[in-house]
TrEMBL record:
This is DUF1697 domain-containing protein. The lineage of its organism: Bacteria, Pseudomonadati, Pseudomonadota, Alphaproteobacteria, Hyphomicrobiales. It comes from Roseibium aggregatum. It holds the Pfam family DUF1697.
């Protein structure tokens, strides 16, 4: 059994992508995922499966596409991937609620940082399939322009750590 964390893009954000977490848990169980749990309302799913990651991703994408009527973004990570991410986390002195990790479907382009416009002093580090951004004044008032973040889904560092903890409990 592998423990996975699925991070859904644009779920329950700004009045779009409405998906009750009870429905998400039911969908996951219906496609054969086990030890299913959700965390907060933004599309975080922790579970175990005998399936390979690609099969899990296909099944989740299919069931969510049927639900939403369009293909959602689903980023899938394992415990070792999240542990490596947390071990490499930049900005150790920043408050964790001001550090956002954007999970991408594939590795960020090598020139991702070149297109970033950070008028409020934001800093970013690319870590393969994740981009970590420190927002000095929080992400809400930020005027950051960073095209490489668009295909991904962001979680603050507190949420990332909680998801890792939940995954370890299943592992």
């Amino acid at each position: 059994m592998t423990v996975f964390v699925a991070l859904l893009r644009a779920v329950n954000v700004g009045g779009t992508g409405k998906l009750p977490m009870a429905d998400l848990r039911s969908m996951a169980e219906d496609i054969g995922l086990q030890a299913v749990a959700t965390y907060i309302q933004s599309g975080n799913l922790v579970f175990t499966s005998d399936l390979e990651a690609e099969d899990v991703l296909c099944r989740l994408t299919e069931v969510l596409t049927a639900y939403f009527g369009k293909t959602p973004g689903v980023m899938l990570r394992t415990i070792p991937e999240l542990e490596t991410l947390c071990a490499q986390m930049p900005f150790p002195d920043a408050p964790p609620n001001r550090v956002l990790v954007t999970f991408l479907p594939e590795a960020a382009p090598s020139d991702a940082l070149e297109a970033m416009v950070a008028p409020d002093g934001e800093e970013a580090v690319v870590l393969g399939r994740e981009i970590v951004v420190r927002y000095p004044d929080g992400s809400g008032p930020s005027k950051l322009k960073f095209p490489a973040l668009k295909p991904g889904t962001a979680r603050n560092l507190n949420t990332v750590r909680k998801l890792l903890e939940m995954a370890r409990e299943r592992g």
